[in-house]
Known about the structure:
Blueprint: H1 2-29, H2 35-38, H3 41-68, H4 97-113, H5 119-134
Helix pairs in contact: 1-3, 4-5
Amino acid sequence: MRTNVGLWWLLTVFFLLVAAAYTTWNIIAHPDVPWYHAIEWVGSVALVFTGFMGGLIAFYIQRVHQAQGGELPADILTADIDDGDPELGEFSPWSWWPIVLAFAAAIGMIGLAVGTWMFPIGLAIFVVAIVGWVYEYYRGYFAR
């Protein structure tokens, strides 16, 4: 976690320096206009806000790291790979419902982009798929 904090602070500094260089370069490249018209505002503001976003993430990760009171296994040099392997839950490798959910999302998005008449069809497929996925262990071969 310490490494992540350092990387995010490094990215923050990098993007703020790039924003300053980008803005200065634009001012120097256009000496015939006033400085406030020479700045390419979209790029400069985007780079500054990217630096601020990196700073927010770095600050958050740093605060979480301080609140943990301990080190993660990834920060300990003598830790094994299995030390940081959490229990992720139970997954069904034979389940077809995630594919049906992806199909429903695709139909819904195509409906929003192409024809709104397709969106309710995607929504109906989504409802059937989410109910099927939630209740797949209640019926059939894998019932418990």
